[in-house]
Every structure is written in C-alpha cells, then in structure tokens.
Design goal:
By secondary structure, the chain is an alpha/beta fold. The protein has three domains: 194 residues, no CATH class; 193 residues, P-loop containing nucleotide triphosphate hydrolases (Rossmann fold, 3-Layer(aba) Sandwich), CATH 3.40.50.300; 168 residues, 3-Layer(aba) Sandwich (Rossmann fold). It is 38% helix and 21% strand. The chain is built from 20 helices and 22 strands. The strands form five sheets. A six-stranded mixed sheet has the order 1-2-3-4-7-8, sandwiched between helices. A six-stranded parallel sheet has the order 11-10-12-13-9-14. Helix 12 runs parallel beside helix 13. The protein is globular, with a radius of gyration of 28 Å.
Length: 575
C-alpha cells in the first residue's frame, strides 16, 4: 500500500481526474512502498509566482515522476496554437509545459535542501488525461509522456508509472543509476519536501474528512447489495469493519421504497438506539427495533424485576409467538433486515420471526448481516448458520471482506492479535497516523495511571472528549470508574447515544458491539485466550476508526507475543 501525503484527499478537490487517480494509487497493490504527494504546492515556481503539481510519485529504485492531471472530455490544440481543454478559456500553455515547469521547480526546491539526493535522482514528468484517448503527436512531447483514458483501462496505475520511469531512464542513461533512490534516500527526500506544503489538520477538519471518506468507502460496498437484489433471501457475512451496519440501513431503505413493511432488526440495545435514529430519516415504512424490545411490545409485557435465567431466551419469545398465532393476521412485516444477525440464531427467536414475516423464513424475503464466526458475545445464539440454512431456509450467501472502517494499522493490529483468519482482502482507508499501542500494567493503580496518560495523549493530538470511547469487558469495577484524578474524574461519563457535551464516554465491549468511535481505549484486559475472551478482544479492537490504545495485564504479554508470532508464520506460509 502506498503512503499518500496527505493521507485523505481534500473534500474540496473538484477534479474528478485527481480523485480517480488518488483512489487508483491508494488501492493498487503495485504501489506498495511508494510515497505519493497530492496537490504539491510549489511556492518558488520557475515561471509563476506559485504553482502546484497534481501528483509527485516517489518510487524506490526507480525515481520520481511529476504528474499533471487533466479530466476534460475534450482536449485540442488549434491552428492558433491555443489549447482548449473542455470549457475552460483557451491558453497557449500546454499541459506538458505545465508538468515540465512543475518538475523543474520541484527539483530546484529539492536541490536547495538535499543536493546529493537530487543530483542522483531520475526525475521526469507526464500528463494524465483521464477523460479522453490522447493520440496527438508533436515534437513538444514524447508519446510515452502521456497516460490517457485507454491506458487507465488496460493497466494498473503502478504499471503505467513504471513504464514512464523506465523510458526516462533510457532517455537519461548517464544518470540512470541502478537501485536509486534507495528506501533511505526516499525517506530523506520526503523529509526534505514535506515541510513545504503539509499543515496540521484541525480536529474539526479531521472529523469532516473522516466522515466524508467513510461515507464514500461504504458506498463502494453497495455493490454487494446490487449483486443480489433479485434474491429473496441473502446472508451477508463478514468480519468487523466491513460495512455491515451501513449496508443493512441501505438494504432497508431500498426495500421500503415499494411501500412494504420493513423490520430493521438488531440484538444490542445501544446499537438499536443508534439504528432507530438513523432509520427515522430514511422511510416511515421502516420499523427499527431490538429483538427483545419487539417481542416485549408484541407480548405487551415488562421485564420482571428479577428475571429467571431463561426468561429472555425462552419465555419472552414463546409468549410473543403465542400472541401472534392467536391473531387473525399474525404477519407484521413483509421484509426483515437484521444487523448483527449472528445473535438471533436461536430456535425460539427464529420461531417468532418465522411467524412475524410474510411467507415465513423459508419463503419470505429477508437479509441477514452478521459476523457469524467472531462476534456472538451474548450467548444468545445456539444455532450455527449452516444448520439454520439447512433446516429453515435456503439463501444466497455473500462474503464481505473489504475493511472500510479502520485504518490500515488498526486493521493489521486486529488481525494480528485476534487471529482473524481469513483476514481482510483490502483496507480502504488511508493511514499516516500512529500505530495502535498495547501498554501493560501490573496493578489496578498502574492501569488507572495508564488510562489518564492515554487520555492526555489523545487530547494533545486534538481529539475531543466526544471522540474518545473507553471500553471494558466488565461494567462493575471497570478502570474508567476508578479514575479519581481531576480533571478526568468529571470528564468521564457512562455512554449514552447522543448525550451532548464533550465528555469522554465508557461502556462495556458487549454493549458497544456494532458501533464505532474515532479513538478507543480498551481497558481491563486480563485474558485473550479462549473463545469468549478472544471474541471480546477482537470486538473491542475493531471499534476504533483512527486511534487505538489497549491497556492489558502483564500476564497477557506472552499470549500477545504468541499471537503475533502465529500471525507472522501464517503470512509467510500463505505468501
């Protein structure tokens, strides 16, 4: 995966060509190890007061390529020598001269700061026409200095860039040193160039960019819905972070367009509150509910003050199902869309849904989204997915494997420490932030000190209190409740959806399942071995979109090291 600087494309970037190229560089595995600058500002331009290069691509062992991007659908140069690009005013300055001038300005800056690296570096320029097939010939440019629409359709961007640099090396045989620049020289070049244009992003801008990119990334996942639109029953399975909740909302919205009665279902109360708030803005035909909440409404009963162990799993669903069966029309819904569906796979729950759905589970229309292997935390489900499908309903199956929630570093950390196999096929989000961290403690007092230090660190990085979530496997006696030092004691509150204010929130891992936060501190980790401990740990790690800090007991360290070693061995074994 390439290192893109800045890591997130500015939402104000209007050029569709630049946005397309940014995405190609980000997603192309052939760019692994490359550094790519976008919108590189040139304050000391050779022909203008200032200028900009659309992309500067630094490739270890090959050189540097400066790219000018044109997204226009009409490109021509008339007999008068003027270039006409789309609907922009005619100009005598060709895009090739723009690229060449930008390259010379960049080299002047680099020589000023790092002459040794600049003098040994193969540097060239090219123009990318994303909207046209550009076949014009002229002595002012070489054919291989052009990447056009046809090229982008036939080859990945990494191959096209390497071709230009290869041709440039042939054109500059005296300078074409093998293996230059080295990885160390690349790091030096980046350090020399980066201060000229990169600024610190304010928390508000970072929040806006994060929201914009997450919406864009989950939009890519909608192809999963499109692919199986005609199927009556579909199971979408995938690990944490693959966009299941957003896809469930979109599936419900689409189903409701025909005026049908839609149940948008989940198991977890906090997730249910969040989904209900989202659903209200989608369509009045969508009824969002938790499974237990829906059954209590149907049965018209309250939870007993001291419910017996099987009250939620057996008595409540039995009474709700009985109420439906005695109705003249027991059907409540035309379509069921269930998020975190792994938690509803219990015969008593399925019996209730079978009666409530038009056509039942066997012949009705439903979409189940779930992580059926790793996130069944509540002990509510006792029917494996394969058994459910063989006994109650046939359904199409679609596996989601592209992570659109976490940064690359967090996604790798999740896979490494939780043993997620198979892992993610791709991670969409850009990442130039700090690595996730695991900090060990040998006493509860040491853990509380580590928690306040982590909070201070996140605040110093610009995270607001409402962007920080503290998660623990236990509610009573959790580390967040033991903080007595000010100002943190008054800043930490128990989590409630949309509480207002800038408070840091805490809750259990179980309660926060299905939700996410920009920065997460995981506390009270005393065990990561065994099915329940592994599931809790995996769920906790995967909640963070941008920053992750884990506070773990010293006794966990050997198990963490063993998990890392297993992960490394598996990566080697699978190439």
């Amino acid at each position: 995966m390439a290192r893109l600087i800045p890591a997130v494309i500015d939402p104000a970037t209007q050029s569709p060509g630049e946005r397309d190229l940014f995405k190609r560089f980000r997603d192309d595995p052939g760019t692994d190890g490359w550094t790519i600058f976008h919108s590189f500002n040139l304050p000391a331009h050779v022909t203008q007061v200032e200028g900009e290069l659309d992309f500067v691509v630094l490739v270890p062992g090959q050189g540097m390529l400066c790219l000018e991007v044109k997204a226009h659908h009409r490109v021509e140069r008339g007999d008068d020598g003027l270039w006409r690009l789309g609907n922009t005013p005619p100009t005598p300055r060709s895009p090739f001269k723009q690229a060449a001038d930008g390259m010379r300005s960049l080299m002047a800056t680099l020589r000023q700061r790092r002459r040794a690296e600049a003098d040994a570096l193969v540097v060239w320029h090219a123009v990318v026409f994303t909207g046209v097939a550009f076949s014009a010939q002229n002595v002012e440019w070489r054919a291989w200095e052009v990447i056009d629409q046809r090229d982008l359709h036939r080859a990945p961007i990494s191959e096209l860039v390497l071709n230009v640099l290869h041709q440039a090396r042939r054109a500059l045989p005296s300078k074409a040193l093998e293996g230059v620049p080295t990885e160390q020289e690349c790091a030096t070049i980046v350090a020399a160039l980066r201060p000229s244009f990169e600024v610190v992003q304010t928390p508000a801008l970072r929040r806006r960019a994060r929201e914009d990119e997450l919406v864009a990334f989950t939009a890519e996942q909608y192809a999963a819905l499109d692919a199986l639109e005609a199927n009556e029953r579909v199971v979408y399975s995938g690990p944490a972070g693959t966009g299941k909740t957003v896809l469930a909302l979109e599936a419900a919205r689409r189903e409701a367009l025909d005026g049908q009665r839609i149940l948008l279902l989940c198991f977890n109360r906090l997730l249910g509150e969040w989904i209900s708030a989202q659903a209200r803005a989608l369509n009045e035909n969508i009824r969002a509910a938790t499974l237990h909440g829906l059954m209590r409404q149907v049965a018209q009963i309250e939870v007993p003050a001291d419910p017996p162990p099987d009250w939620f799993a057996e008595e409540l669903p039995a009474r709700a199902t009985e109420v439906l069966l005695y109705r003249d029309d027991p059907v409540l819904f035309d379509v069921i869309v269930a998020d975190e569906a792994q938690d509803v796979l219990r015969d008593s729950y399925l019996d209730f849904l079978d009666v409530a759905l038009s056509g039942g589970l066997a012949a009705g229309r439903w979409r189940f989204f779930g992580d059926f292997e790793r996130q069944a935390l509540f002990g509510s489900a006792d029917v494996p997915l394969d058994d459910f499908l063989s006994a109650r309903a046939s359904a199409a199956r679609y596996r989601l494997s592209v992570n659109c929630r976490n940064t690359r570093r967090i996604a790798d950390f999740v896979c490494m420490l939780s043993g997620l196999t198979p892992g993610y096929s791709r991670v969409l989000r850009d990442d130039d932030g700090p690595d996730p961290r695991m900090r060990h403690f040998d006493s509860e007092r040491a853990q509380v000190s580590a928690l306040t230090a982590a909070l201070e660190e996140l605040y110093a990085e610009g995270f607001g209190g409402d962007e920080i979530m503290i998660l623990s496997p236990r509610r009573d006696g959790c580390c967040a409740r033991q903080v007595s030092e000010q100002p943190w004691r008054d800043r930490i509150k128990e989590y409630r959806p949309d509480p207002g204010g800038q408070f840091v929130r805490y809750t259990t891992i179980q309660a926060f399942k299905g939700l996410e936060a920009p920065s997460v501190i995981v506390t009270d980790i005393h065990d990561i071995v065994g099915q329940r401990a592994e599931s809790l740990f995996y769920t906790a790690l995967s909640r963070a979109t941008d920053r992750l800090i884990v506070l773990a007991d010293d006794v966990v360290a050997p198990d963490a090291v063993a998990a890392v070693q297993r992960y490394a061995a598996e990566k080697v074994a699978h190439g």
